[in-house]
Target: GntR family transcriptional regulator
Amino acid sequence: MLTHSLTLTDRVAGRIAEQIAHGTYAVGAKLPAGRDLAREFGVSAAVIREATERLRAQGLVRSRQGSGCVVLSRTGSQGFRVPAEAGMDRTQLAEVIELRMEVEGGAAALAARRRTDADLAALRGALAELGRHLDDPERGVEHDLAFHRAIGQATHNPSYQQLLQYLNLQLRQAVHTARSNTQRQPGLSALVHQEHEAILAAIEAADEAGAREAVHRHLRNAAARLQLQEAGG
Model:
């Protein structure tokens, strides 16, 4: 069983969800501004952004740039959910990696077809930051997720962007687990970074099939490094 303590994002999102459920914030009401929530919970603005995005993914709030978050429902959507990281076992983690393989592989292929110069600059920047923090799991996970988020942006498909953002939020601890595991093995961080570089190279070359395969290879290797069996196998 892969078990982890709840992240700050989990705890803050859970507390706000409880406040919504108990009527502290009524349906139709706006949540306090991000800086006020950050002060209330003693966390950074980044944690509040992630927590409110998680609430949005659950159908509890609607967020709009410049207008804050409005409460939509006192109870979350019962639709598709990725298992919570704290309760995710090895089989579930293998299943989620299999899902990511197809979703992120497809996104990379679209990114290879549609990427702009601005998209490539964002991808290179995210990868450069990741390269500077290979031995820091805490900061490395942020730049790892930023790189995959930049791939979503390069698809120029809002549905892909929203789905990848949802997966990133739900899988933050899983990515942290993988990067922490990698750091414990000498030389492996550099090897994983080369896998990211191969994804970027294929997108830069407008090689759709190559981009898809580079993502598949990266995630297959990630599963192998965590000693996970193929889902359904």
Residues 8-71 form a domain with the Arc Repressor Mutant, subunit A fold (CATH 1.10.10.10). The CA atoms of residues 109 and 179 lie 25 Å apart.
